[in-house]
Write a structure and sequence with these properties.
The protein has 260 residues and is an all-alpha fold. It contains 15 helices and no strands. The longest helix has 19 residues. The structure holds iron/sulfur cluster. Iron/sulfur cluster binds next to α12 and α15. The site of iron/sulfur cluster (SF4) has 14 residues, from α12 and α15.
């Protein structure tokens, strides 16, 4: 009876292609985690994973991915907080690789915030053109530089509230800057990789980045918020690609198979 219920749950929920589903987690659980995982599993189809279950589940995912990608870090090149800020503004709907090519030119030409604030807009647009939405991005970079000079003494502020006052800056950008320029875990940067993979792994049922971030902040330990994004983004870039996830090579699949 119990067995057929679990089988039908597995079939009906269809988690990510790894078999990284409640049943797999349950199989690999032993001793100290088993009670919580059992409870989590039993409650799964009615209310989703229980929070305790999700915390254990995400801890296991972090453990596996941090073992696989110990050097996962921000993929954008930068040498100062404002360079990171501008790189992240450019990265909307654009690959990090492309942004790094653009910023190699941009950062060489504009060295100070003042030079961005005084930049000729058409010239700035031309440099960032290949990032897409280049008019808006150039406008936001110039306006942000101006605001940083006028309102923040020429430095990038270190709080979410202040960062959100800058043109073109939403929570994802602010989280990347806070986490990578200042080492502050104030939130979790949710990009397309995180949206896709957090859903595949059933860490959230939402598609809205702000709601996903809230769901993740409840289950990922705060000291690992920045790292968590890097790990998921690295998995997304290397293996769990949107068009063709490499499930056979996925470290989550491999680890679970070994240990289950
Ligand atoms: S690549 Fe990994 S995380 Fe992505 S769907 Fe496949 S098994 Fe799941």
């Amino acid at each position: 009876m119990q067995k057929s219920k679990r089988t039908s749950l597995k079939n009906s929920t269809g988690l990510c292609h790894s078999g990284l589903d409640p049943e797999s987690i349950l199989r690999l659980s032993s001793g100290k985690f088993k009670d919580n995982l059992d409870t989590g599993f039993r409650r799964y189809d009615k209310i989703g994973f229980s929070k305790i279950f999700k915390k254990k589940y995400v801890a296991r995912i972090i453990e596996i991915l941090s073992g696989e990608y110990p050097k996962a870090k921000c993929a954008l090149d930068f040498a100062s907080p404002h360079e990171l800020l501008f790189a992240v503004i450019l990265s909307a709907q654009c690959t990090d690789e492309r942004v790094n090519k653009i910023t190699a030119v941009l950062f060489k030409k504009y060295k100070t915030l003042k030079s961005y604030a005084n930049a000729d807009l058409a010239e700035l647009e031309n440099i960032v053109r290949s990032a897409g939405f280049y008019r808006n991005k150039a406008k936001n970079i110039k306006a942000s530089a101006k605001k940083l000079i006028e309102n923040y003494g020429g430095t990038v502020p270190q709080t979410m509230e202040e960062l959100l006052t800058l043109p073109g800056v939403a929570r994802k950008t602010a989280n990347v800057v806070l986490g990578n320029a200042f080492g502050k875990n104030c939130g979790i940067a949710v990009d397309t990789h995180v949206i896709r993979i957090a859903n595949l792994l059933k860490l959230t049922k939402n598609q809205d980045p702000v709601k996903i971030e809230k769901d993740l902040m409840e289950i990922v330990p705060q000291p690992r918020w920045t790292e968590f994004s890097h790990l998921i983004q690295t998995l997304g870039r290397k293996v769990c690609k949107a068009r063709k996830p490499g499930c056979k090579e996925c470290p989550l699949t491999a680890k679970l198979k070994v240990e289950s």
